[in-house]
Specification:
The complex is a heterodimer of chains A (about 475) and B (about 120). Chain A is an alpha+beta fold and about 475 residues long. Chain A has helices spanning about 10-15, 20-25, 45-55, 155, 180-185, 190, 215-220, 225-230, 280-290, 295-305, 315-330, 340-345, 415-430, 450-460; strands at about 35-40, 60-65, 75-80, 85-90, 95-100, 115, 120-125, 130, 135-140, 160-165, 170-175, 200-210, 250-255, 260-265, 350-355, 355-360, 365-375, 375-390, 440. Chain A folds into two domains: about 10-55 and about 185-460, Alpha-Beta Complex (Naphthalene 1,2-dioxygenase Alpha Subunit, Chain A, domain 1); about 60-175, Rieske Iron-sulfur Protein (3-layer Sandwich). Chain A starts with 10 loop residues before the first helix and ends with a helix. The chains are: A alpha+beta (about 475), B alpha+beta (about 120). Chain A: One of its GO terms (molecular function) is oxidoreductase activity, acting on paired donors, with incorporation or reduction of molecular oxygen.
């Protein structure tokens, strides 16, 4: 796969490394042998999962929370990953710290879920030991009961992770010697900056627990090859009664260094590139009602305001809606971005940020997925979904709270599109354990960002720290 | 911004919208007794409304449950609230709380710990 991104001055650097040599494969069980197959054990082996815990999650930059979850000094939110818990705490100077969530006395977790530490004090509920929100110990009840040296400052202050922010998210790395965040997110963070995802805030956010491996769940969102069969209502490029076997959903796929990847349709507003008239307004309605993300109701109103003048099946309709959307944002005081081809190309695109975060930008919105192992089980994951959008300046909503956890088939809380995806995912997890099934086989044209992710994962698992 | 007055010390301070009385006191440097620092856990911040009851936002479920389960019977009463959950909607609230004062020589504050 060639990288043709013209934005970077050093294109060679964004090119993925590709299959690994002996120095990596000799250290990793069930390692990738080529880019066209993924060994099935990677999705259920306890040995592989434990290696991920030790070598991946403990050393990788990962999305820990949204910035607006902790707007004021003293606000905290807990981030849990493979049984390790951290408190993301907003500091008085506006920065964020990620404190290890364990009392230095006997290990009690100091915060659960989300909340505030009023008065800037974190208190252990067991014996009342206390820390300032920067992790410095401020009080030990009954100090006289402890021997000399047991309570030395470096023993009882709360240890921290590395923390940095990008795109409205707080990222952490447990490894204090890790390199900078932006190097790890290269080049996908730079690409997403074209649509200023940092301007967006949480509209809603919820989660589902799926009985499948975390990688299997996220890979279902790495390609649009599945759209025709999984989401027939979205496959508007042809009439449903024709027997044409041509895949008309053909975005460009790109794999990058650091395990990242993306696919983009190239400006969702251009409509069909195959000669068939696509009703863009109808398409937008299906997207909005199907997931209330990427395309929101307000985008529909703007597009409807154009449909009285230009027929929605007219190729000019797409361009006219782009004009209308940019005008709307400007008049409404909604922060936007420069109208450049690189930005419009991302509309309807799907960006994977290694190891477990996806961003799907559209207009001035973004759908985001974070997939993490759940319950210390290689065959369970927590799948979180955020709908982000840009609000008029000064009218951003307050501190967001998760709407909650809902069953995968709960039609009151999940739109048709995610329900269709979730229903396949658990069937895959069961299927890959069939006795005859040793490896998945991938389409070189559409599915190589999956193997790119696995090849980067193997390099992480082989690394010596 | 509404003001509250605390007897018997006569301390008077402002409380922001949505902010608890205890947190407002801490933010402005006053001592308000606590052990759990705002987690509705220790009951130490309990206070009694002595006047201006209508200026106080009524207690929510979390506060009521905490007082029912963890507050000793001799302290409980219809006018008793947790200052770490008590928010204020207008001027005129008068509270009674022993130990509220300007911080000086405070045994329970952020004393430095030396290794």
């Amino acid at each position: 796969m060639t990288v043709t991104d013209p934005r970077t001055s050093t294109p060679a650097k964004v090119t993925p490394i590709g299959p690994n040599g002996e120095e990596v494969t000799s250290k990793v069980p069930f390692h990738m042998k080529d880019s066209l197959h993924v060994p099935a054990e990677r999705y259920y082996s306890r040995e592989f999962y434990d290696l991920e815990k030790e070598k991946l999650w403990s050393h990788v930059w990962q999305m820990a929370c949204r910035e607006e979850e902790i707007p004021d000094p003293g606000d905290f939110v807990e981030y849990e990953i493979v049984g390790k818990s951290f408190l993301l705490v907003r500091q008085n100077d506006g920065s964020v710290k990620a404190l290890h969530n364990a009392c230095r006395h006997r290990g009690t977790q100091l915060g659960k879920g989300s909340g505030r530490f009023p008065g800037g004090q974190i208190v252990c509920p067991f014996h009342g030991w206390r820390w300032k929100t920067d992790g410095q110990c401020s009080h030990v009840f009954g100090r006289e009961g402890f021997s000399d040296g047991v309570l030395s400052r470096d023993e009882i202050d709360l240890p921290e992770c590395l923390v940095d922010t990008w795109g409205g998210h707080v990222w952490i790395n447990m490894d204090r010697d890790a390199g900078p965040l932006r190097e790890a997110l290269f080049p996908v963070a730079d690409i997403l900056d074209h649509v200023n995802v940092g301007n967006m805030r949480v509209k809603w956010w919820k989660e589902v627990v799926l009985n499948c491996n975390w990688k299997l769940a996220q890979e279902a969102f790495f390609e649009s090859y599945h759209v025709k069969q999984t989401h027939p209502q979205l496959y508007t490029q042809h009439n449903q009664d024709d027997a044409d076997e041509t895949n008309r959903s053909l975005p460009e796929y790109q794999s990058f260094v650091n395990g990242h990847g993306l696919f983009q349709g190239g400006d969702a507003q251009r409509g069909s590139t195959h000669g068939n008239a696509t009703n863009l307004l109808e398409m937008a309605r299906v997207l909005w009602s199907g997931q209330d993300a990427m395309t929101l109701e307000r985008d529909l109103w703007v597009m409807e305001s154009v449909s009285g003048k230009v027929d929605p099946t007219d190729p000019q309709f797409g361009l006219a809606t782009v004009d209308a959307l940019f005008e709307y944002w400007e008049s409404a005081g909604i922060p936007a971005y420069e109208r450049r081809p690189e930005a419009l190309k991302l509309w309807g695109g799907d960006v994977f940020m290694f190891p477990n975060y996806l961003m799907l930008p559209m207009y001035n919105n973004c759908l985001c997925y974070r997939v993490t192992p759940y319950n210390d089980d290689p065959e369970q994951c927590k799948f979180e979904v955020w709908s982000l959008t840009a609000y008029p300046e000064g009218n951003e909503p307050g501190r967001p709270e998760s709407l909650g956890r809902f069953d995968k088939d709960d039609a009151d809380h999940w739109g048709l599109i995610p329900r269709q995806d979730f229903s396949n995912i658990e069937r895959m997890q069961q299927g890959i354990k069939a006795p005859s099934f040793t490896e998945t086989r991938l389409a070189a044209k559409w599915e190589l960002t999956i193997s790119n992710m696995h090849e980067e994962l193997d390099r992480r698992l082989a690394a010596e720290y | 911004m509404p003001w509250v007055t605390v007897e018997p010390s006569g301390v008077r301070f402002e409380v922001r919208e949505g902010e608890s009385v205890a947190e407002a006191a801490w933010r402005q440097g006053y001592v308000w007794p606590t052990k759990c620092w705002g987690q509705a856990d220790c009951m130490s911040c309990f206070t009694k409304i002595v006047d201006g009851e209508l200026s106080a936002v009524p207690a929510g479920t979390e506060e009521l449950d905490a007082m029912r389960l963890k507050m000793v019977a001799r302290v409980r009463g219809p006018m008793v609230r947790l200052a770490c959950r008590l928010t204020v909607k207008k001027d005129g609230l008068v509270l009674h709380k022993q130990g509220v004062r300007v911080p000086e020589d405070v045994p329970n504050s952020n004393q430095a710990i030396t290794g």
